[in-house]
Structure formats: structure tokens, C-alpha cells
Amino acid sequence: ESMEHGSVSWEAPSNIALVKYWGKKEHQIPANPSVSFTLKNCRTITRLDFSKKENQSDFDFEIYFEGNKKEDFKPKIKTFFERIVQYVPFLKEYKFEIHSENTFPHSSGIASSASGMGALALCVVSLEKKLNPEMTEGFFRKKASFLARLGSGSACRSIEGDIVVWGKHKEIQGSSDLFGIKYPDEVHENFKNYQDTILLVDKGTKEVSSSVGHNLMHNHPFAEARFAQAHENLAKLKPVFAEGDLKQFIEIVESEALTLHAMMMSSRPYFILMKPYTLEIINKIWNFRKHTGLPVCFTLDAGANVHVLYPEKDKVKVLEFIKNELVAYCENGHYICDSVGDGAKQL
Ligand code: PMV
């Protein structure tokens, strides 16, 4: 194949953190380790068209999102290229067209930065592999995650499947601050195909960008305690993943979500990113759990939407509850049914 021009395509999934990444050091190094479920249905599909160029003085690229040329996406991608070029110096030798689309609605309040940066990073490493065909599969995935991290921290957890750990943790072998790894230890079948129904409470764009959010952890009065707690919660999840103890799982996951929001509420400036309906939903979930005994819980990102997590075997009952009692709180009744998936795929 000619290296003068060509194209590579990848699809990368979104992910939902169980132990949250909130706070970072320089160069997108996380202040604490995090762990996430890789999702299956919420994905970004990206094709990178490349052609060799003469002039190597600057980056040369255009972005098309769902068929339309997007000037407003360029600064973010340019910043990404500037951060990664030292690791992929050939970037300046090519002219690019980036064609991207999401499988989920653009204005859903679902961040597409994880799947988007994941897919783009994979395309870049695919081009590198064309130049260096000896690159091993293991190195390929690590490098893609490493580059994705420089685009958006949580994007480094959107390469591998099932369960991904990002950030050095003394009890998780191979874990690194530089890239995400597939969770290396035993996982009980309770977590197989775990469901995530995403209730779209507020489809608007985020009030607080995540980079502003992470910075709020600098000089935060509770920062050190929070970072230590994330290490503890990840250590506690190890036996939970191995033994399938859903009661413990729920306690850790819900506490993580509320702590993330507690950090925002106790920073300066302070923010409340939950909406009244977020709380209504949480209370309904707690009531349902109490009355049915079913292991349903919630988690939150840095926004008002609620991720409802539950085992696949309880899907029929939980979906009925969601439709009867929770969908009324969603903007235009919109929600997304997702579940744990196996990671990015080359197309
Ligand atoms: O990847 P960022 O910089 O957009 O940060 C994401 C942070 C949370 O979604 C709130 C938590 C997480 O670990 O994904």
C-alpha cells in the first residue's frame, strides 16, 4: 500500500467511570486512579484520510462531523496534535481529513470527547503502524490509549473492553498514569453484559467544562482525602469484581458519584450540576431497590444525567421500572440503553 495517501477507520466506545477521575497534574496525569465500564452502543466512528505533503511547517487538517465541515472543532484538535506530535512526529508530514460521527445524539449531554479522542488516537496509531509494520498489538493499544489521554483524560479508558483501569494503583498490576489497561484480575459473571441505561435529564452542553472542573481540585480543601479515597475504593472493588458482591458494588459506585458532585459543591467557585430531576431519579432508584431487593444503582458524570446500572438478568424488571417511573424525568422522554462492551474496533 502506498504511504503517499490512504485512509484508516476506527470506532471507539464511550465509557462510564465507577471510581471517578477528578483532578489532574501536568501533562494529563491523573491525581488518582479510576476504573470504568467500557460501553457498547455509544460510539464514535472516525475515518482519517491522509496524504503526504511538501511543506512540513504546520498541521494541515479539516474536520467533518456527520458530513458537515466543522471549523469550531479545529482548535481542540490542533491542541491535541500539538500535545502528541512529539510522540508521532510524522503528523506534520501529512495533510488530513477527519470524518467523524457518533452513534448517539450530538446534543444529548453525553460527552463525546472520550469516544471521539479514542477513535482519533487509534487512527493516528494505525497510520504509524503503516509506517512501522513491526509494531505489536500490545504496543499499539497502549500507544493509542497514551495519545487519547492527551486529548481527554478519560478517553484513554475508551480503547480496551469491559473494565479499564487508568492510573497507578499498587494493587493493580500493570496500571499506569500514562494509559488505561484492561482490568487484569478476576471478574465475576454478575458483571458480564452489565447494563447502563442513561437517563437524559438535561441535554444542554455542560455548565462546567471538565478542564475547569479538574482545576477546581487544585487547592481544594478536601483534595488529599479524596485522592486517598479513590485508591481505597479501587482496592475495595477488587474482591467485589472477583466475588460479584453487588451490595458492596452499589455502595462504592453510588458513593463515588455523590463524592464527585460533593467536590464540585465544595470547591471555589462552587457548582451544583445536578438538576431537581436528578435527585428525583436517585430517590426513585433507592425506593425501588428497597422494595424489590434488585441490585439497581446509579452513577453520575459531571452533569445532570443519570446512568442506571444493573445486571443483565434483571433487565426486564428494571426497564419496566425505568419506563414507568423514570422516563418522565428525561428531557423529551429520551434515554439510551447501553451495556458493557469490548472496546474499540478497526473498520
Ligand atoms: O476526561 P475528562 O477530562 O473529560 O474528565 C472526565 C471526568 C469524569 O467524567 C467526571 C469522571 C471520569 O472518570 O470519567
Automatic annotation (TrEMBL):
Note the superkingdom of the native organism: Bacteria
Which parts of the sequence belong to the Mvd1 C-terminal domain?
198-327
By its UniProt entry, which InterPro entries does this protein fall under?
A: GHMP_kinase_C_sf, Mev_decarb, MVD-like_N, Mvd1_C, Ribosomal_Su5_D2-typ_SF, Ribsml_uS5_D2-typ_fold_subgr
What region holds the Diphosphomevalonate decarboxylase-like N-terminal domain?
12-171
Q: What keyword terms does UniProt attach to this protein?
A: ATP-binding, Lipid biosynthesis, Lipid metabolism, Lyase, Nucleotide-binding
Q: Which PANTHER family match?
A: DIPHOSPHOMEVALONATE DECARBOXYLASE (PTHR10977)
Under what name is this protein listed?
Diphosphomevalonate decarboxylase
Species of the source: Autumnicola edwardsiae
